[in-house]
Records
---
Amino acid sequence: MGPFAAVRAEFTKIFTTHLWWVLALVLLVYLGALTGGLGTLFAGLQSGAIEARGGHVPSFGDLAPPLYSFATSIGYVFPVLFGALVTAGEWRHQTITPTFLANPHRFQVLWAKICSAVVFGAGYGVLALAASVTGGALALRHFGLDPELGEVSTWHLFVRALAAMALWGFVGVGLGVLVPSQAAVIVTILAFTQFVEPLLRLAAAFSVPTADAAKFLPGASSDALVGASFLDLQNSAEGTMVVAHLDWQHGGLMLIVYGAAVTVIGCLTTWRRDVS
Amino acid sequence: MPGNTAPRGATIEIAGLTKRFGHVTAVDDLTFSVHPGRVTGFLGPNGAGKTTTLRMLLGLVRPTSGRATFDGVRYRRLSRPLMTVGAALEASSFHPGRSARDHLRVYAQAGRVPASRVSAALATVGLAAHADRRVGGYSLGMRQRLGLAFALLGDPGVLVLDEPINGLDPEGIRWIRQFLRRLAAEGRTVLVSSHLLSEVQQSVDDVIVIAKGRLVYAGELAGLASARGRAGQASAPAVIVDSPTRDVLAHALADARLAFEQTGDGFLVSGADAASLGHLAFTSGIELSQLRPATQAGAIEDTFIELVGEGGL
């Protein structure tokens, strides 16, 4: 009872199980390795230290922002999974019964889950940036490229990346409400974020009208909010792709719209249903 | 541990409560009340609608129509529900990775129950020594106790327990019976569901019996025996009698035109008392190995089964 008590209880739920730190650990290792590895490859190519096919030196433009944005363009799946699991997990373990007995105001419980997922999303953002900046900056510096850590624009990117990760936590809770089956929501999230959306964005990039539509996809909106993307590297290298971006404010707005949409639909369906 | 100043229980009022799932009516226009200071058994076969009724009472299931209240207040309108009503519904509502103490800590915070109640509730149910172990490693009996600790968390005046005896060992069953009696003696309202009358017969004052979602009996346990008359059969004295020569005894009973049926420990003879049967045996020269009045408990059990019969026991 009471919004503050509800949020406090959600934090206790999170800290008394393993999920939060297991996700954090996987995120650190995964992003650190990926940014370090790919950073080495791209920085090596750009500096000419690694010889590209045909002997020409490709230019990826400014390498630091897209490398650092791995934190969100790759790492966003972690806050989504987190938000979805703290919600769907209540049905999975039937703890939804004591949860609603202790606080029968279901919207207050949902609100508390959104608050805690947003805070943890931002927390995952800090870890993701730590991993991608460490891996990326080391790779850039190794090949004598500028890691741009003194630039104001780089720090603006960091702040927007934290906002994106926080919003992804919100989207995750919404998905967990909409699809309360834990297995189903995990499969949905992994399939959409890892296969469906990347393929759609790749396919859409071959023509202007499709690219214009694809910029509203959730991952594209997130990249717009952050202001840089892994896909930029690919596009600048290929030179044949069409990339349409929302500006960062609209990218953020689209993420809020996605989160609100799944949450509202979930509220009207599963969250109000009988607990039996 | 319930202290000297145990909170007085509220009266549970169920009025016209109905729940339909599609075309199936799980609970059909139930009306009854449960009073403080007494242990009330909520009985009926599996599938009779007991759990659905309790979940409607607790705001977890939305009734199709009707009301369920505590002193006139719906569960969702209670200002601190855990401190008014404690409920234990099933033995599996735990995250297996959480310890018992953490489990209770979460809900103490959510329900704004003082943190000191966590240890108190664990001690009351005898889980203090295992409080920091993961619940995933608990036995069914320990989970039942943890469920009960959750119900006691807010030191509530009303306890609603769904099949709390399932999975307990004999010592645990004895303990919970005494415990329920003590809670009622303190003035609390105690509602305990069971599909087995014999499980709760020793500890309840009142019983509510439902079958196929409908109320078939509400009143004192003792009244259940005479409800048999209302249920359509004459209530008559009955005696259990047995002999080393059963076939001879059966003949004599038939000759005397007595209604009797064979049971596990002899014959159950209705419409006769022990004295007249003893006389019959003596005059017929039959040795008796047993002669005693059929117990009240047996009659209550019979009535119960008769009331809920065809209910799919």
---
Amino acid sequence: MKKISIDHLARVEGAGGVTATIDGQTVTEVKFFVNEGPRLFERLTVGKTPEEDLNLVPRICAICTLSHRYAALRGLEKALEVKSPAKVSLLRDLMHLGEMIESHPLHIFFLALPDYLGYPNAVAMAAKYGFEAKIGLEMKQFGNHIMKTMSGRFIHGENPVIGGFGRYPNREELIFIKNRAIQFLPFALRTVQLMCELNYPDIPESETLFVCCHPGGDKFGLVGDEIIISNGDRVDVQDYKKVTNEFIVPHSFCKRSQYKGKPYSVGALARINNLGERLEGEAGRLFKKYYNDRWKKNPLFNNAAQALETLYAFERVPQVIDEALKLEDPAPVKWGRDTGKGVGAVEAPRGILFHAYEIAKGRIVHTDIITPTAQNAEDIERYCFLAAQELLKKGQEDKIRDRMDLVVRAFDPCISCSAHMVQVTKAPADDWKARLRSLTVEGPAVFIGLGREDRSDDRAGLELARRLRDGGLQTVWLEQELAEAPALEKTPGRFILLDAVDFGDKPGKVCLLPLRYVLWNASLSHRLASVLSAPLSYQKLMDSYLLGIQPASILEGGRLSVEVEEAVDKILKALQN
Amino acid sequence: MKKDKLKIGIYELTGCAGDALLILDCEEELLNIFQAADIQSFLMAKSDNIDGELDIALVEGSVSSEKDLKELLDIRKRAKVLVAIGICANLGGLQAAFLDPKEWEQNLKKVYGQVEMINTKPLQSKPIDAYVKVDYYLPGCPIGKEQFLSTLTRVLAGHPPEIFRFPVCVECKWKENDCLLNRNIACLGPLTAAGCAAVCPSHNLPCVGCWGPAEEANRTAEYQLLLEKGFDREMILRKMANFSGTRIADFAARLKGEKK
């Protein structure tokens, strides 16, 4: 058994890691974990005033500081019935565009591009790619300039407040930003060309759901009161829990999100996939030129999507400023009420961010913050698993580490977003025996034998189940009994599926792996149609495991091969102990 | 040439990574720093990091897990000079707002449930000097660019850094701002350490205290002034507590002691 671990993910904002465990020809465990200690922001804000909340929550993350502030402002203003004037909305959009212009080029040129061009860091890359490094630096610097002008500081500026701004930028400051943005256009075009014409590896590729804010109207945008999902569904932001569905996968110790039973992705790629058709101007033209079906299934294209959004931001800044300059600086807005609930959502550079508040008599009584990286965690693991499993199958084990690194970084995870990220465990899987034992020690197990009677080794799962039942075990089901699934669903305990599975390994090889991985792995999942078509809940399936035996043969015939027979005996013995 | 360069490591414990990001935001100066010193470790900026002997270690973030603690002890062992950067490393940060271990534990359970963390054990947030000797402190949330560059330059040249011990009000006067207290806005400037160039008051906004308590403020007088303005005790302490971390207990005790 081999364990590949990337302990310190360098060049992501914050510190996290990934581990993958390989058992023969099968990846049995992939864990994306966060090394942040707990910070308890959702509790820190309780008892505080809405103004204090705005001092605190941007500190969740230095990179997304203004997105947190913007989401909090939207949530708090909804709760307090504050309607911010049109000029305030425009200037908030400007500060938000500034954050995109700061974050995307930083990620593209300094965090992602060195990987694609084969350098250990941006400084090393700059020796050969001085022009690119300079564009990146200047764009980021300009983004910082916008953020500083609008918020008061590079990081954690306090200027945007409920109902407006402490100090409004003056005409000269806005015109300066507008002119600089226009000067940057050729460089933004070059950035899109560079990032859209990279040769992105085709492992991993797999469809997913994309979730982002729906900006309303018919324009591209980064905030909204509705959520749009790539399957066409629309959900009111106030009902965000219908989308995020946070749940705990027992024994993986991480709050995860799933929509309608599927993991989903958020971020630049989600926005471009869901709303790219709405892009206008040069961004619209280049979207049409470069967009293709691979963007829907390859997470590495997030880097290309970030480039398109950077161009969008540079084109949008002058428009926003022109509109804002037509309006007077508004007077401070009073609260409509001091008690109420409200949810705010904005697109942080790395995806949709929710801030939900409940306020009573001017004090916060409940806070819920759901960060993009927490929502991406499930898909980050899924794509890492797919990358590792496919490379392993192709005999390119040596590439697994770097590829997983690339995948995680493509998601641009902001790991200091620890508001909701529970640390993921990396229980070292010694072997299937120890893990099987710990699973059965943790709680009751329901064994489900799968297979076909007339196909030699494919009988293994059924045979194993029957022998368990003969041994007196009550909670055993056979494939043909799955029609009674409602009763099965109600049976307490974790499902452990028993089946002959072609892992591409030596006959008789036993592997125990979470069922989720099997569902993610097309080459393994076709055998599980009977289980998947049974009306079992997603959570139940997510908590299930597959105990598979590599068959020697599944040709017609009535006998198990010697190797599989031995494996069946070993499993029975392990379970008896 | 490279051998003669001082070896620097920049490390992030638990926090928002804002101080490391601010260093990254130094851009042109950063390239100069990369030339003037040998940056051995800077996770946010490079992947070829080395954990060896260091002349200067800059540490951001609070100790909030056993992993943080292990890393900090290791850094201290390797570094000749250790500088705590940012409010989390200096005072424990926002996450150190729960002082009572029981209260902290209850809130930990409220957020994370009964989940047992296997990778590393969470610890109640503490500043790094709760565990190791800190040579210099650079406050701020996040640290200020000017203070950072001047501190690093001085430490690189073997001199102790010059940190402002006076409150934000001094910087506010330098900028000739109108005093917000005169407009009855509850500004924490009189109690908060300077170094930010009075950024919030310069935006018509009250100081929120993000540099932590000022060492040389005339606390009794300033505190009395705030009370006379009609701001209540609970509000002042609650606001100070948002950023003062573990130092708030000492701060509150001194205020009580000084008030006759």
